[in-house]
Every structure is written in structure tokens, then in C-alpha cells.
Amino acid sequence: MTRPHAPRLALSLALVLAACGASPAPQFFGAERHDMIIEGIDFTVFLKDGQAEVIRHGYLSRAERDRVPPLMIRAAETAAGCAVAGPARGLWASPSLPGDTGEARFKMSC
After folding, report:
1. I need a surface site. Which of 4, 24, 67, 74 has the fewest CB within 10 A?
2. How far, in Å, CA of 46 to CA of 51, rounded?
3. What are 17-22's contacts with CB under 8 Å, separation 24+?
4. What CA–CA distance (Å, rounded) separates 51 from 13?
5. Which residues are bridge partners to 88 per DSSP?
6. Confidence check: pLDDT of 4 > 80
């Protein structure tokens, strides 16, 4: 026996999941987007005006997060093709707490 609401439920779930993709911070609207996997971790990098925003996807245990900050730098450098000059400052600065492994913003030295 089929449930009459199953197709509507499946469609609703698909729409919700489609909306869960990485979105840039307002400062990065219109940025170049790069999706990549580094050492098994998914990252999205947004590049704009010499700045990079890196977003990590997926769940990691507390112990697994220790290796993420250098991988975020590597993701930014891979996407930009140049070196990270340091954390983004001013308008570009990240609102995240220091040590956050979900999002980081960098000034690029290109």
C-alpha cells in the first residue's frame, strides 16, 4: 500500500536539501566559487578582491578538526593560485570565533 503524501514529502525534502549548499557571506556575493576535496574533506572557496572565504562541509569529530586550519589555507591557495597573506581584516574579517574550523577568511597575496 502506498502513502498518498509520500511524493509531496519526497519533493519537499529534496527542495530543503538543495537549499543547504554553501553560500558566501554578503561581502563575497558575486565571488568566484571553487569546490574541492582535500585529504577527504570538502571545501568551498569564494574569491573576491584579493580575499578568500573558505567553508568546510560535513561533520568532523573534535579530534578530526585539528588538521583543518592548514587545509583551509591550502584550499584558499589552491583556488587563488597564490599565497595566503594572513587573516582577512576590516570589512572582510570573519565573524567566527578564533579556531573555528567551519569557516575562515584570508587576505591573499597575489
Report:
1. 4
2. 8
3. 22/55, 22/57
4. 35
5. none
6. no
Q: Is 55 helix (H, G, I), strand (E, B) or coil?
A: strand
Phi, psi of 4 (to 5 degrees): -65, -20
Longest dimension (CA), the chain: 62
Separation between Cα atoms, residue 68 and residue 74, nearest integer Å: 10
Q: How far apart are CA 32 and CA 46, in angstroms?
A: 5
Share of the chain above pLDDT 70, in %: 82
How does pLDDT run across 25-72, given as a tens digit for each residue? Answer: 999 999 999 999 999 999 999 999 999 999 999 999 999 999 999 999
Residue 102 vs residues 20, 45, 70, 105, 110: alpha-carbon distances, Å? 14, 12, 13, 11, 24
